[in-house]
Amino acid sequence: MQKLAALVGPTAVGKTEVSVLVAEKLGAEIISCDSMQVYRGMDIGTAKADFATRQRVTHHLVDVVEPEVNFTVADYQKLAQGAINEIAKRGKLPLLVGGTGLYYQAVVDKYDFFPVEARQEVRQRWERALQEQGLTRLYELLQAIDPEYAAKIGSNDRKRTIRALEVYDLTGQPFSRVQQRNREAYQLAAVGLCRDRDQLYARIEARIDQMIAEGLVDEVVKLRVRGYSLDSNAMQALGYKQVYCYLEGMINWEDCLRDIKQETRNFAKRQLTWFKRDKRITWINVTQYIHAPELADKICEIVEGQFRSM
Known about the structure:
The chain is α/β, with parallel strands linked by helices. The chain is 54% helix and 12% strand. It folds into 2 domains: 3-111 and 181-308, P-loop containing nucleotide triphosphate hydrolases (Rossmann fold), CATH 3.40.50; 120-180, Histone, subunit A, CATH 1.10.20. It has helices spanning 15-26, 51-56, 73-89, 101-108, 120-133, 135-145, 147-153, 158-171, 197-214, 216-225, 240-247, 253-276, 292-308; strands at residues 3-8, 28-33, 59-60, 93-98, 112-113, 179-180, 187-194, 281-285. Strands 3-2-4-1-7-8 form a 6-stranded parallel beta sheet, sandwiched between helices. Strands 5-6 form a two-stranded antiparallel ribbon. The model has no long low-confidence stretch (mean pLDDT 93).
């Protein structure tokens, strides 16, 4: 059975820096597990590893598609499985790193996505419902028919809310029931990083301030000039959506910054809730480690120990 390691956790917990050290120690290549890092031209707001970091360790599934592409979890799963096989053939260890819970689960449990093709008239009907009733109302509908999937995706995921309602419309079944899992797909060794809440929230705020200083607004301006709007799934990403609204004059700068920070904190809570459900993940409180190399050693110890016990 193919070995697969994973390093997961909420945004701003510190995965990127330590993942490179872990990959170097384990002879691994990194597979990004982030739903927004797949988009080209969206670098600052998605906190991609910089060029120097990606030179140290090979990274996969970063800068895969243009922002106009409707990139799905099934697309990600297919590319990730291909990357895992390629890495293994080179005698390296595949290391999933990121915080997108659904993408992680689709790979490690090898979701079998029910092949429901979108029917244009059904999709258009739900798009009209979104325009007329708003996302909050549609999410409430999803909670009523498929509470399990609604809890997984959260209330702000427009794309997946509509897709789940569309699947229910077409099949009469909740989306969560038309997915099958294979928990024996890989020899999985998974580590989760967490921090004390106050420290994590402080890091989130500092990261967002840094993104603004590094040019997040200019990055969104460039995307806007290229014709991307809130209709694009990519522009629903945290930070991009709020800055776009600011540029359109829909909110002022203070509200923009406050909303980014609040939504990011909420997102981090949802990430932890998702990953905590997977009992295969061994958790490390990063607050207990002062230096990244020390933390990397501990992660490697856990990963190697999990592999030996299988």
